[in-house]
Amino acid sequence: MTTVLRTRAVRLLLPSALVAAGLAALIPSVSAQAAEVEVWKDPNCGCCSDWIKHMEANGFKVTVHQTGNREARSRLGMPDRHASCHTAKIGRYVIEGHVPAADIRRLLQQQPDAGGLAVPGMPLGSPGMDGPAYGNRRMAYQVLLVQANGRDQVFQSYPAQP
Q1: Pair 27, 105: CB distance under 8 Å
Q2: Where is 94: in which H helix or E strand?
């Protein structure tokens, strides 16, 4: 391509590229929208506090309500069979229990038509239920994608580790 043709191509394409970049900057990214997490937990629950630290260490801004989570779980539509010790809301999604931040980021990136994610119970080795206080053990557990109708499917599986 000659210099003249390259110059013409740049002159024609550059304005379109700049407009596209400007519009992209005006649209908040999924991760920016999702950076704010609202959590309901019992004020005396240490593992919930550890999960919140996990979320903050992974770039989420967390607002905590020390009121317990039963009412929030019910109000937000998370079925009791998926219950854990804390409930969170991130954008339009409900997060129940010790869900890893990486799975939440994946949920926000993929934007499935679902109610949210859940790790029922309190499995050892999940974020907030890990580390020396728990003997560094990890039980097998699954992160469930919970549909608005309450049905679920496996979103991510974590194997046990001795």
Answers
A1: no
A2: strand 93-97
At 161, phi and psi to the nearest 5? -135, 135
pTM: 0.79
The pLDDT tens digits for 91-132 are 999 999 999 999 999 999 999 999 999 999 999 999 999 989
- Per-position DSSP letters for 20-69, written without gaps between them: HHHHHHHS--HHHHHTEEEEEE-TT-HHHHHHHHHHHHTT-EEEEE-S-S
| pLDDT tens per residue across span 7-64 | 444 344 444 443 344 433 333 444 445 489 999 999 999 999 999 999 999 999 999 9
How far is the C-alpha of 36 from the C-alpha of 13, rounded, in Å? 37
Residue 38 CA to residue 44 CA, distance in Å, equals 17
